[in-house]
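Data availability excerpt. The first of two example chains:
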Amino acid sequence: MLAYTLLILLAGGLQALAAHVQVTWDIGYLNISRDGLSTWQAIGANGQLPIPPIYVTQGDILELTAINHLDKPVTLHTHGLFQRNSSYYDGAGMVTECGIPPGSQFTYIIETRNQSGTHWVHSHYGPEAIDGLRAALVIRDLDPKLLDEYDEDVLLTLEDWGQEPSNAMLERMKTTSLGRHPNYPSVLINGINANFSQPIRFLPGRRYRLRVVSMSFTYWFKVRLPGHAMQVIEADGIHSRPSAVDGLDLCPGQRYSVIITARESLEFNYALNVTFHSNFLARKPGLNPRYHHVPIVYRKDAPVKTFPLIEDHEVKWADEYAMEPQDKQMLLEPVDQHIVLNVKAPNRNTSISAHAYGDYAYAPVPVPPLYTALTTGDMALSPSVYAPQLNAIILKHNHVVELELRNSFAPIMHTYHSHGHAFQVVESGLAKINSSIPVKRFKGRYPMRRDTITLAAGQYVRVRIKADNPGVWYQHCHQEQHNLSGMAFTFIEAPDVMQQTLRVPQEMLEFCRILGHPTQGNSAGHFGSDMTGIDLPLAINGTANSITGT
């Protein structure tokens, strides 16, 4: 359901037309076969899957209502939006809220005044998003210079889709060596089996903004359109200076926009190549990697132009280290706080399938950490009020924070997604014991920003943020199996400031009461450091982490 209430808004000294955009998701179970191969109980909205994309214009207020007809709580996270001054609307289950109880409904108020670009919405309560509760979110730009760069918007969503419900898959992973992924999922392009991708019509000479959204939760995608030049102009909602690329390589959760100018001739049609790939599934012809094509149609009866095969290393892939943000934000410095976190993976001789960014496998606690930060006064600045399994890191207001994530020993790729921030991408390289060997560093004067990045096996990445968004922000691997097994930590950002500026809607506190969760005190619902009633955290062995600076 979509309704518009128009109002006049002054933005940047210019008069712009804004709207309250009301979208309702009636969330429930569906027995459906999305790939034509297997039928199982998925989760959709308004009786359908895929859930249609949401389109708004920068400056609009999105009122996203979730009606919960599941038998468990639900939340909605707007992936890529910073929720400035409204951390409680971030949708991270048992981090910023307790969830919407079964039979209840709630409206998230999403401000888009200071953001635009390509994003998406998904549940952030357990594995509900894996089971289908996800959709693209496009915030159209107001900047006339950017609008002049293209004639038409084209959305391309990429998804992995399992052969069984998430709970069955996750249970089997617990008994699989090293928690490895035991099967090969299907690929969905714009919501349907990629083997039957719907054509995209190109008109000669027309300029298209292709928005590519990886709504995957486990696997990577590569996208190329041979015979056409690409100019990348956006990564994860951050507009960049146009730069020529041959293709895109997206990890779970990433987004790109590229400008593609259609050819002048109607002689041929073309194929947009989409490659599914993973380094933690065994290579198997037809399954990993897997190749799909989206028809690019200039003329209905034209033949498809063929091109010689080229190796990946010959392709100029979009590279965040070579990109620059359109707003020319300088490197944040000096650094006030330097954090080093080592990826910790299961030992080969244990049945535990947990992963971790912190010293412990992340696990939810009775009181969401946002509520602990808001109700414990000066103690909110002390780690003692946050249970160890939250891997809580306290950030001081407006401090520059450098985060180094090290994947020294894990044999597989991981990802890092930040709620509440787009980080500056500073450096990556080889991760050795107690040392780092830079291989890539941002070029030029202005490091690119984004909110999701790949952490390759045996490598580290170094990013920076400014702690100027008071709230509690979930930080995690976007491979959902790893996230759910504990690969996460939390930024407790400026708790002294958030106590003065954030006011949680009473309805959200009432939901906690219904679900049996306290909304005050430390992680256990007590005051001080008494954690009675909380399970002992699961410690994951590995190289020690470090935090320096205050």
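And the second chain:
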Amino acid sequence: MDRFIETIIGDSCNQGCAESNTELSTALTLETALQLSQKLDQQLKTSQQVIQKTIEDNTETYAKAQKETEKAQNSITKLLEGVDELQAKLGDTETGIQARLDMAIQTKEYKKEQLTSNSAILRCLRQLAGINEGLREMDLMIQGGKLDEAALKILDIEEVLGGIEELEDTRVGEILRNRLEMARMNIKERALQAFHKTIAVEVSHHAALLHAQHETNTNVLFAALDSVEDHGETCQAFNVYIIDTFVKPVLSAPSLELNDKSLDTDFSVRINREGSETEASDVSMIVLELVAFTKRKLGDRAWTDSALVEITQLVLQRCFLKRIPETRADLEAFDKVVGVLSDFESSLLAQCVKPPAEMPIQNAVKRLDELFIEQQCSQALAQARKLAQSTSFAVHSFEEHETWGVEFLRGIIEAAGTQLDSSLEQWAEGQGQMVFPRCIVSESMARAICRVYWLINESAQCTREDLADRLKEAAQCSIDAYLALFPVVHRQQLRRVPALSWQFHNDCLYAAHHAAILARLDQNRLGQWTRTAQTALKRGTVQATAIVDAESRELKSLIDSGVFYSASETVQKQQLGQMHKQVQLAVMQLCAGMKPPALTPQVFYRACGSYLDAVFAATIEGIVGVSDISADDSQVLSDHCHSTLGLSVHFKLDTDILNVYSKLASDQHENGVLWDSDSDGEGDQECARLTREYCKMADKLKQLADILVISRADILARRRAGLLYQFSTDDYGY
């Protein structure tokens, strides 16, 4: 400070001397010098006063700064204010006090922070040492089976770990938390193992056994599980094990019997997989005894709420859903079973900690009518699928034409074990009779149609319109499903066996017939039933066309055009005869499988005409393709044409059968519907008429036979008279 004052004084004097020297250098006279001397004295006195005042001020300020410095430990804020005041007067560059104070404050704060950090590290290390010791003790408790104490130790360690802020979001903290989570899982696994050691499961083909192996302090297990916040997961896992390995196998067996002689140590159920169905009351009793046995061995908390609900659902499935009667008459007698199962559900679910949100059996009882309808619908569709996939191909032959009416409906419904609904009976009486001509349909289709009418009768008895609509929809879908599946499943058989193809063709017509009748009954679903009928007719037409085309190609392949060359030669003539026999045999076999009552006469005639046309067209094509025909060859080929025309004899059918169809055609014609229009003609005249009606190529083949033997002049004369048929190669390419 003294040096600072000297600096101030020195600077002031030097400044005054410099100014005096400047003025002296300009003085010209003594008077001027005297005046200057007086002025300098005055300035010196003024400077001394200023310096004295400055010294006094600086001394006072310094004293104040020194006093505030001594009080720095008590009031840092006051010290800084004094320093700021001193700095404002003297300047920080001169004093350096602020810089030294800042450095001292920083040093002190750093040491304080270092001390705090070291204290925190030391405290954290001590806590980690305690956690490590706690983990060691926890492991020893788990190994020693003291699961409840180990669980409490986990909670203590977690509390300590949570209070160490320094370990948050650190790798060490994460490792410790994972270690504790593994300990939790270990406790749960050991508790589950203890449950398994307490009760063992043994299931064979004839018996199911729950064996109590040794006593277990389940209170310790549940206390440990509560401490680790298991929320019933371990107990639920054990329940699932019991349900999967014991309850489900037991409930899947038809006949059950409880062995109550050793319920203190074992729970045993005798199983008979070939015996009669055990009543619902006995099944309920066995399940309740099972739950009681496990609770005696494991405590009241042995079963979780969800496990009890699952057991209820299993009993519901076995004793209720799978035993819903198939008829409404039996449905009324089902009330006894309903009462037993309702009591069982109340007893079992009363053991839940929290009442379940839904009671499965009570809900099913409320929906019994709906479940009954769903069962009928699903069974109908399942039966349609099974019938369509069946490979028995059994035949359902009508002894006479099927006449639809009240008696027909009553017979079908009563055969199913129920009664025809009065509303359906009244409707049928107002419709009169509708006839389906006698033919062969499959037993599968006949059974499917019976099921359809049974569903329609059930729908008439429904009080809820929505359930009635579901039955009608199932009836329609069962027909659609059968007709869609059968040609896909039996594709190869339909290609190889013509009789099976014609049978499916008849099935389609039979389904269309009854779908059209049901369209008149169910006006609300008129469009759907009409579409089903039209689809069935289309499928039948497609099937008939496919089999006719396939067999026609086979017949045409039997005709070798090479044998028409040099037909009069012995070898060629013999080959021509053999070929004719093969064709004749093939046509005879095809017609034999189609003759009524396998098909109706009209369908038979159309198919037979197509087969003969194929033979006629191939014969014409082969002969016309010969470029040069001798007179001898012409005679042989003409005879062959007449022999081929003789195949039309297959149009001839048994008179008694034709009379049945002719009477039906006459009756249907009076009603405006014509199923078959067969003539009562006899012998060759009838065959000739049918040949002209159903064979397009017969007249052309007959004309070719004549042309081969008449003269050229006769051919020209017939042509001028317009007696020759004009046809191109497209015609005989039929």
